[in-house]
TrEMBL record:
Keyword flag Iron: no
Claim: Signal is one of the keywords in the record: yes
Any one GO cellular component localisation term in the record: plasma membrane
Alphabetic keyword roster: Immunity, Signal
Domain Immunoglobulin V-set span(s) in chain numbering: 21-101
Gene3D superfamilies in the cross-refs: Immunoglobulins
Any single GO BP term: cell surface receptor signaling pathway
Protein name (database record): Immunoglobulin V-set domain-containing protein
Xref: InterPro entries: Ig-like_dom_sf, Ig-like_fold, Ig_V-set, TCR_beta_variable
UniProt cross-references to Pfam families, sorted A to Z: V-set
Amino acid sequence: MSQTDKVHQTPTAILKGPEDKVNLTCSHTVSSYNMILWYQQSAQNTALKLIGYVRFTSPTVEDSFKGRFDVSGDAAANKMAYLHFPKVTEAEDSAVYFCAASEAQCFTIPSLLYKNPL
């Protein structure tokens, strides 16, 4: 089995109108993976933007997507996560959505200790 066969997203294509609800599902088959991430790629900005992720059962939505998107699921035991749009509201919501699965990394970001003087 190839790496791409281990992560599945459904539906593979969807067409919705303004104010419609959208639900996407992502699943994986890798026993050591415990994190599922959701990304958006819009026609206006082709860079991948992280919407949010589920680490084990703990969901996180990035600040720029809060209030418009929700993530949920169990990335470890059930190996599934969901991306919900309560309603399509912005032109940028018309986009390509990707999910990815990985092992969660534990790290601490140290607080800013000093600033570079300019």
